[in-house]
Amino acid sequence: MTGNGHVRFRVLGPLQVEDGSGPVAVGGHKPRTLLATLLVAHGEVVSADRLVGTLWGDTPPDGAPTALRAYVSRLRGALGDAAPIRHRPPGYCLALDAATLDAAEFEQRVRTARAAAASGDHARALAELDTALGLWRGDALAEFADEEFAAAEAARLTELRTGAAADRADALVELGRAAEAVPELEALVRGHPSWERPAVTLMRARYATGRQADALAAFHELRTRLDDELGVEPAAPAQALYRRILVHDPALAGTPPPGNLPRRASGFVGRGREVERVLAALRAGPLVTLTGVGGAGKSRLAVEVAARDRDRFDDGVWLCELAGLPSGTPVGDAVAAALGIRQRSGLSVEQTVLHYLRERSLLLVVDNCEHVLEHAARLVGEVVQRCPRVVVLATSREPLGTDGEQVWPVPPLPLEDATALFVQRARAAVPDFRLDPAAADAVAAIVTRLDGLPLGIELAAARMRAMSPAEVARRLEDTPLLGGGRGPVARHQSLEAAIEWSYRLLPEPEQRLFRGMSVFAGGADLRAVHRVVDPAATEDDVLDRLTRLVDRSMVVARSGVHSRYRLLETLRAYGRARTEEAGEDGALARRHVAVHVDLAERAGRGMQGADERAWAEEGLAVYDDLRAAFTRAAADRDWEPALRLVTAVPELVHLRVGYEAYAWAEQLLRVVDPGHPLYPAAVGAAARGAWNRGDFAGATATARLAGGRLPPPGNARIAHPGDVLADVALYEGDVEAALAHYTAEAERARADGDRIRLVWTLYYVAVCQAVGRTPERGLAAARESLEVADATANPTARSMGRYALGLVLKKADPDRALALFDAAGELAAGVRNFWWQGIAMMEAAATRAVHGDPVVAARELAAVLAHWERVGDATQQWLNLRYVVRLLQRVDAADDAAALHACLVAAGKPSPLGPPDGTGPRGDPRAAEATAVALARAALGRVAASPARA
């Protein structure tokens, strides 16, 4: 390498040197050791004698000094002027003139994060820490772990990394994301048992997630460790927090504002005038649409405006991203998933969304509407008309055309803001980037040539690793692809030119990887990218190319347990066009389907094991691509992978997302061979969908299509055709038929050694006995269910076992039942199993309503009301309303109890107060339910606010 190109040294993992073109070869072990020794010295002179000793040990050969000079010369040739190795008696030093060191960047970002946290900007702190920790690729100076020269520096960096991990956990807790912090904190405590700081934060995090007992246990475990190892008590902060937890200090239970807005990975630059004007527009009307070409910054502006307007909405701000939907498809399922709600029985998903939003005050951000414009406009229009306290902020390349819409074209960034954005992104690539006068002129030329479009500016700024601003400006000036003139069309041409220019600067293997990634609807982890885009390469090679694409802002990386990579929608559209030109789209799509079918099947199996949480998170992360895989397979009439996918996802989708995938199963029943081994599983999935919609006749007719055939072993728990028939019987009052089915199925599962199936069937045996008012007869089944469930270590199974035993004990031993219900709810919540979480919460609240503190019970029943509204189960909501009536009776709230009783009877539901008294609404059960929920919420609020009534 020669010239002044930028060089980057990486020591947070195996030693690696890169320039703008990729890795730089620096030779074998001895040159690498020499380079590492100079890097560890941080620019200080290292004597030749010390270098010889490091390279050859205590007995160097006679020619060692000459060989040392040869190695220095070789390194100088590889590194060039960017990182000169200078001779300074008595040895050598390495200067990072035009080079950067990942360890230095890591330390700087940690310092920035700590300053941000000290000022209360925990979101900025978290973003900096995520970036800093993302620089690590393994152990510091990993290949030199046994070398004396590296030991102290490696230990120092490792300690800093551990501190940064603790900082990150603190930031998560401060931002109200304690549940995310708990696993990281538990790992820190295991790795550093005598370090008080993560133990204290773990106490806070556990308490914030409703786990008071576990929070106190963390303190006791810390005290035991300190006493055993050091003979001391925990310090004052731990002691003080312990006392606050004991007395339920309200300040510890601060809840984050509702919503799902993502945190910003970088600061928002400029657009102060646009932000204020859009905020004013949102206050003036219920619908604002930000329009503009791709890459104009519509999405980022919308998120910034939404974040600043958050406090105006009691029910928060919710972002629904539509980019992952296939063109022209309905948007109701995506909006419901973003809001965290599921389709209600008897309602379409769109009606469910409207029902949920009708009584709420929130801001709904609907992003990337252009490819589903008709469906988005229809649903948004209904929301605006029917939900008086909901405001919608949409982004689209063209207006929605809906009544009342205020259209705000997003203008290009003015020169000052565009320059600031360029500098911010350039410093993300090259931390010591400086805007001197010469560079300022070149940057002005760049951002002007790119029409102030943020995406184009970010792509150009990413090139600062390998080019100067003047070189980028010259390249852009010379390209023939840029359109002349002004206006939206010209700006679109400018952006296309910037993308084209960035793409053509990539080496061919990176071009192939970039365009291949356009097949992913929602992004992918490294394993999926490798298997779908370039299976002939090694995974390490794909990772190297991905890293370079991230460095060039062509790919967005998101850190996590498994880092994920995606293309911004504008870049994805460009990549799709290139795959079609190259004739690669068909093969890519087929591999995409195959990989996601395989993942769905592995997740389906995994969610029945001990690692249910990890598999659920992985499956949810790829849900957009599971949808895309099914859509493609169905369009190609490739029924085998479509059937495999549909029968693998019921637990993932039904229990955690919604009912969209049941329509897939219904579609397949019309076209697949009934003799296929998976046909009964597809029947079970479709039948369960009809059951969830409240269509019991349809559920029965569909389930009978299986002809009594059983799904294969390991099938999703909720998708057995026979179980659906039994559940219909149970709901319609034929307890004996349901009991007979589940008793026989339990015997079958026991004989087959199918523990997951055995837990499920024993659970229902206990439920049937409880419904039949003979809970004592269900005790043996419930106990066995719990015992078998614990042997599986599967969280959902363990939750079911605890719920079953609590249900049959709640009258005979309410204290034990309460503990079982609480444990069941926590287990289900930990794996995002919302239905089992809800029934456990409800039975715990109902038991407290009879046997415990009525104020606590009122708060818990109110939380259950909100839960069933989100989950969309009207059957469970009516049962919860009966429990509310019983509590109101207990606290002598006679008028409230009578009003709620009237709603129950009007809807044809049983009531604890007996026959109707002639008052209350009549007609539509859904209207009666809405009225009942509103009455119950208000009444419970009065009970919770009046402890004296207890």
Summarize the structure.
The chain is of the alpha/beta class and 950 residues long.
Which range does the strand content fall in? 5-15%
CATH class of the domain at 1-175: Mainly Alpha
Radius of gyration: 31 Å
| CATH fold-level topology of the domain at 1-175 | Arc Repressor Mutant, subunit A
Total number of beta strands: 15
Q: CATH superfamily assignment of the domain at 1-175? A: Winged helix-like DNA-binding domain superfamily/Winged helix DNA-binding domain
Q: CA-to-CA gap between the ends? A: 80 Å
CATH architecture of the domain at 1-175: Orthogonal Bundle
Percent of residues in helices comes to 55-70%
Uncertain segments are: 480-491
Structural class by SSE content: alpha/beta
**Order of strands across the biggest sheet?**
9-10-11-8-12
Quickly count the helices: 43
Overall geometric form: globular
For the sheet with most strands, the description reads: 5 strands, parallel
Mean pLDDT: 85
Domain OmpR/PhoB-type: 1-96
DNA-binding region: 1-96
GO molecular function: DNA binding
InterPro entries: BTAD (IPR005158), HTH_77 (IPR058852), OmpR/PhoB-type_DNA-bd (IPR001867), P-loop_NTPase (IPR027417), Sig_transdc_resp-reg_C-effctor (IPR016032), TPR-like_helical_dom_sf (IPR011990), WH-like_DNA-bd_sf (IPR036388)
